[in-house]
């Protein structure tokens, strides 16, 4: 992999990790377009994922720091409540990661047409959430608007359902951010609450997923970076980090303004191109 290819794919990863268009799907697409070999690609994937995790921490640092300070007060407060709901949301993907990782990887493989199918599913979810998100679960049977809702804007059951959406997003082409945000909106979570929760809930699963990949690689006798080189890894990391900073901020604003349907259209177009040209 050349350094400019790594930089380009790092930018793609940084943008698509936060924008609801599937980062895994786009990495597969660009890997096919550029003809990048599989040797060392796991190292690259680990590097760019850590870059997007770092960009998330930078964007939401004030919220993360507030949660950490609240936890060390050792009492049940708003911060503890929020952290526990994030933990609940991670249960489904943890089960999939620990017990069904090999099955899922074998089920989907590297078929680019699978990406196209799940991009269509992403488009459907985004469209439904844009039109119906905020209406479901927000009105009482008599048509009146319900009260302020659960603590921190999300209930435990909603956190679990959003977590189920995240577990389904292990499929290539099914956007992690798109699925979690759409699922939350369709469950009645307010737009202003959903974007932050969606991005914070994926931090630990993403890190855990990449650490498992590293352990598998080390267990196979490989050394990190041996198949790709330091310069491409650095270029990919920087591209993903800078693009991730921009995309994360943009996505938070777009969720609040109900602009997800345009990403649904994009996913639809890309899926059709895959079926026609693939």
TrEMBL record:
Keywords: Antibiotic resistance, Cell membrane, Cell shape, Cell wall biogenesis/degradation, Hydrolase, Membrane, Peptidoglycan synthesis, Transmembrane, Transmembrane helix. The lineage of its organism: Bacteria, Pseudomonadati, Bacteroidota, Bacteroidia, Bacteroidales. The chain crosses the membrane at residues 41-61, 82-100, 112-132, 197-215, 227-248, 260-277. Belongs to the UppP family. InterPro entries: UppP (IPR003824). It is a multi-pass membrane protein. One of its GO terms (molecular function) is undecaprenyl-diphosphatase activity. PANTHER family: UNDECAPRENYL-DIPHOSPHATASE. GO terms for cellular component: plasma membrane. It holds the Pfam family BacA. GO terms for biological process: cell wall organization; peptidoglycan biosynthetic process; regulation of cell shape; response to antibiotic. This is Undecaprenyl-diphosphatase. It is found in: Cell membrane. It catalyses: di-trans,octa-cis-undecaprenyl diphosphate + H2O = di-trans,octa-cis-undecaprenyl phosphate + phosphate + H(+). Bacitracin is thought to be involved in the inhibition of peptidoglycan synthesis by sequestering undecaprenyl diphosphate, thereby reducing the pool of lipid carrier available. Catalyzes the dephosphorylation of undecaprenyl diphosphate (UPP). Confers resistance to bacitracin. It comes from the Bacteria. The keyword Signal does not apply. Its EC number is 3.6.1.27.
């Amino acid at each position: 992999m050349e350094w400019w290819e790594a930089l380009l794919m790092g930018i793609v990863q940084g943008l698509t990790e936060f924008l609801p268009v599937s980062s895994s799907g786009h990495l597969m697409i660009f890997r096919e377009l550029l003809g990048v070999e599989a040797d060392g690609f796991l190292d690259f994937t680990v590097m760019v994922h850590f870059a997007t995790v770092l960009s998330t921490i930078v964007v939401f640092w004030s919220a993360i720091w507030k949660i950490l300070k609240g936890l060390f007060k050792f009492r049940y407060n708003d911060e503890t409540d929020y952290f526990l709901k994030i933990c609940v949301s991670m249960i489904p993907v943890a089960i999939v990661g620990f017990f069904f990782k090999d099955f899922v990887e074998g089920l989907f493989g590297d078929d680019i047409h699978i990406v196209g199918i799940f991009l269509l599913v992403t488009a459907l979810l985004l469209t439904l959430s844009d039109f119906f998100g905020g209406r479901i679960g927000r009105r009482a049977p008599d048509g009146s608007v319900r009260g302020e809702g659960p603590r921190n804007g999300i209930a435990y059951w909603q956190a679990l359902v959003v977590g189920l959406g995240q577990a389904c997003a292990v499929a290539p082409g099914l956007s992690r951010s798109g699925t979690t945000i759409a699922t939350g909106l369709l469950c009645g979570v307010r737009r202003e609450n959903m974007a932050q929760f969606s991005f914070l809930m994926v931090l630990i699963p993403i890190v855990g997923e990449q650490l498992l990949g590293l352990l598998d690689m080390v267990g196979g006798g490989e050394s990190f970076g041996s198949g790709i080189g330091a310069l491409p890894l650095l270029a990919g990391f920087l591209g993903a980090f800078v693009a991730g900073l921009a995309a994360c901020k943009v996505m938070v604003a777009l969720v609040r303004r109900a602009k997800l349907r345009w990403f649904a259209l994009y996913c639809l177009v890309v899926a059709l191109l895959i079926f026609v040209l693939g």
